Amino acid sequence: MFATIVFFSVSILPPKIIHTATAQQKPVPPYAKFGTLAMEKTHEKYPNAKIIDYLHIGRITGSQSSTEKFKLWLKDNSKEFGVFVNIEFNNETGKVTNITFKETSR
Question: Which pTM was predicted?
Fold first, then answer.
């Protein structure tokens, strides 16, 4: 009588699992530097308030200068309010020429 013995090699260690994540890097929008400036200047104007929301409204483009428009939502103690921030800049140099703030309840 002949017997055939077959051996299977099984590892008791878990196989190496490699997780790779690829983050898609989105291009930095052209208004990003002005958004940072809007938040910095708003924080200077309202030092006790926390900025809890941020919205880029858009850009108004003129022949000599353009204006980036933002709406920030702030919380100061129990009061919440919005601030429209307009940043005007020279189209050729990118230099900021004017920043205005306007509070809103909505």
Answer: 0.74
**pLDDT, average across residues 13-38:** 77
- Over the chain, what HEC string results? CCCCCCCCCCCCCCCCCCCCCCCCCCCCCCCHHHHHHHHHHHHHHCCCCEEEEEEEEEEEECCCEEEEEEEEEEEECCEEEEEEEEEEEECCCCCEEEEEEEEECC
Return the pLDDT at 15: 53
- CA distances from residue 44 to 26, 37, 39, 68 in whole angstroms, order as listed: 29, 11, 9, 19
